[in-house]
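Box 3.1. Reading complex inputs
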Amino acid sequence: MRLQQATRLALYSVLVLARDPTRQLAVAEIADGYDISIHHLAKVLRTLGRAGLVEAVRGVGGGYRFTGNAKRVTVFDVISLFEDVANPAPDDHDVLTPAARALGLILAEIDEHAVATFRSVSISTMLKIIERTSQRATADRSKGSEAQDSLDLS
Amino acid sequence: MAVARALASPHEDAALSIRPARAEDIAAVSELDAAITGLAKPAYWRDLFERYGTRRQDQRFFLVAESDGEFLGFAIGEIRAWEFGAPPCGWLFAIDVKPDARLTGVGTALFHALCERFRAAGIDKLRTMLARDNHLMLSFFRSQGMMAGPSIQLEMALDDP
């Protein structure tokens, strides 16, 4: 499954902001590191704002902050603001041949699994996964450098 | 099979304790299950206790959570080896928490206690299986760090032509 760019930006933004709901970040700060258009991101943030997931804070030092409940809001909730994953559009070229129906069944099975997965992962769980994967990456890097050190010494 | 339902944050109640189930707990276990599923099955729970609470205690774990002597929930797990070709792993197949004790960390405490017993038995993988529309329990297991495993469950209707 491939998510549209706006959907991915929305998820990245929610995750960056939910990490510390007391902190507000400017659009440029959120965009930092993702190589994305600030204009596009601002539009995405407005949609998130209308859904009550983020709030715009005006004035000097203003920006956006996360206002949702990270334990209750799921990845599916964010995705469904931008695309209809629960009811994917049929392929334009589909005609109801037996082969198309069979393919439709298989694709529907994949979609059902995807939706169940998105619905089951809260923003809080995503933050835990991010933390775990970062720790693993750090540990792997440290193991790699230890191995390199021992090679250098031998 | 009992359906797991607990959603919890780390428990801070020092009075909470997790211990092996005893025969006198089974009435409360059965009552909790009946209240949630709407179906009383006392004989099933007595049989389950007989199999998981009294035999092969190094591989089968029937745990109960209590606070100040009050029953709060239970979890059942078992080490299964070479099922579907899989090396020995711990299966969590029931976890349930009283509705008024949810969101207090009881489910998490039961989950961790079961994981500890599996680890102590030399097991390094935990598995479970549940309906994909059981969003509440899927969320609970995912919040504990569980991810999709390597197996895919398949089925077919035997009355299909």
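In summary: Strands of chain B lie at 16-20, 60-67, 70-80, 89-97, 126-127.
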